[in-house]
Design goal:
The protein has 201 residues and is an alpha+beta fold. It has one domain. It contains seven helices and six strands; from the N terminus they run βααααααβαββββ. The chain has a six-stranded mixed sheet, covered by helices on one side. Helix 3 packs across helix 4 and helix 4 packs across helix 6. The longest helix is centred in the middle third of the chain and has 34 residues. The relative contact order is 0.16.
Length: 201
């Protein structure tokens, strides 16, 4: 594994909009998946919207991202609708103590706070790795993202994950290190887990 420190890594906003009761976010996460409340088909790709903002030269702050999202999506109604879908699914699941307001806030947290934290960190990690290898880079489109590709460094596909989530137990979080260059990041550094992959293609 290769560790790259990056003095230019900036602090990012905390990903929480409110204090959540115990187990609330886990249950809302399951309900979000079951209801497909944040499906790209209905909500568009936040990755492509983020890149559109950055390509316009707008700094990737949380405030800028929130405002840009609302301008491009015509407000927050789609987030409210997604929150209501999550709430309806929780009702079907028999979970009655989580309110509709909590579900709407949870969706806003995913789209605003966690997208800002995740894509900002992903962006910096890809740039740092590309500089290390002295190769060009680009970020993935929506179709590539579905395949687990967050960007490209030269001809190599890259998957980027926060350091604390890359190897959690659920199967969707396990990257295939034979198919992508795996990079994890935290606020002050990023890590290349399989540098030998750069010689594989």
């Amino acid at each position: 594994m290769i560790k790259l420190t990056a003095k230019h890594y900036r602090d990012v906003a905390q990903p929480c909009r409110r204090s959540w009761p115990k187990y609330a976010t886990q249950l809302m996460n399951i309900a979000t998946q079951n209801s497909k409340a944040t499906h790209v088909k209905d909500n568009g790709s936040v990755k492509e919207l983020w890149l559109k903002m950055r390509n316009q030269g707008i700094k990737g702050t949380l405030e800028n991202w929130t405002n840009f999202y609302q301008q491009e999506r015509g407000g927050e109604q789609n987030l409210i609708n997604s929150g209501k879908k999550v709430y309806a699914m929780l009702q079907k699941m028999g979970i009655l103590w989580i309110t509709e307001d909590m579900c709407i806030d949870y969706i806003k947290e995913l789209v605003y706070n966690k997208t800002h934290m995740g894509l900002g960190g992903e962006e910096m990690a890809i740039q740092a790795i590309a500089k290390y290898y002295q190769l060009p880079y680009k970020f993935s489109n929506a179709q590539e993202e579905v395949q687990g590709i967050d960007g490209w460094i030269g001809k190599w596909p890259v998957q980027v994950k926060p350091e604390d989530s890359a190897f959690k137990g659920h199967v969707h979080n396990h990257p295939d290190k034979d198919k992508v260059l795996l990079v994890t990041y935290k606020k002050t550094a990023c890590f290349i887990h399989n540098p030998e992959f750069m010689k594989a293609l």
